[in-house]
Design brief:
mainly alpha, Rna Polymerase Sigma Factor, Chain: A, about 70% helix
Length: about 220
């Protein structure tokens, strides 16, 4: 008796027969039906995930699902109808297939990383001549402005520069604003050169006086 011939009858006696004596005609028919259904579930989930599983892997999964069912899985079945049995098998089949897909994806990613890193392990890495050199462009600003900006960076703040120079903070602010106005009218290359120059001078100031970092914070 196949699974579709049972109709609304209680499926539990046939399930017990399958787990107790799978060689009987009824048990063999139920086994074939469950195997076909498990195969359809594995194929459907695999297709939905981009066919990441090969056909041999799918066939192996079907066998694994059947082993789970016959080695104790069906003992946990609490339904009594064919739809309930199919839903039970679907849960086990889908869960097993998803787990296999995740494992396959992880293995493929690991293999891809290993293959992409392999040439680096066997290829000598020769440092470029400029690898340890930092090219600092000249500032496009006049020398007096450069000197003033260096002094500001070394002071750490406008207030400190005003104190050191013996002028008001407003005077320092006005001078900085005039320098900024010169930077604004530079072309893109000039502004880029100025930014690189400022970063270099700021690092140099911090290297010479690390306390400036705490003051800035």
């Amino acid at each position: 008796m196949g699974i579709h011939e049972i109709g609304s009858s209680d499926i539990r006696p046939l399930v017990r027969r399958l787990t107790a004596d799978r060689h009987s005609a009824e048990a063999a028919a139920l086994f074939q039906d469950l195997m076909k259904y498990a195969h359809r579930r594995v194929l459907g989930v695999s297709r939905a995930c981009g066919r990441i599983l090969t056909e041999p892997e799918q066939e192996e999964l079907v066998g694994e699902i059947l082993v789970q069912l016959l080695s104790g899985g069906l003992a946990h079945f609490r339904g009594s109808t064919v739809p309930e049995l199919l839903a039970f098998v679907r849960t086990i089949a889908d869960r097993t297939t998803w787990r296999a897909i995740r494992t396959a994806e992880r293995d493929r990613r690991t293999a891809w990383r290993a293959s992409s890193e392999a040439p680096e392990r066997f290829t000598a890495q020769i440092p470029r001549p400029d690898q340890y050199l930092e090219i600092i462009p000249d500032s496009p600003l006049p020398e007096p402005d450069q000197v003033y900006l260096r002094a500001l960076l070394e002071a750490g703040s406008k207030a400190e520069l005003a104190r050191r120079a013996g002028v008001s903070r407003a005077a320092v602010t006005q001078r900085v604003q005039r320098i900024v106005a010169k930077v604004v009218v530079l072309d893109s290359n000039g502004r880029a050169a100025h930014e690189v120059w400022m970063e270099h001078e700021a690092r140099r100031a911090l290297d010479s006086d690390p306390s400036l970092l705490a003051e800035a914070g």
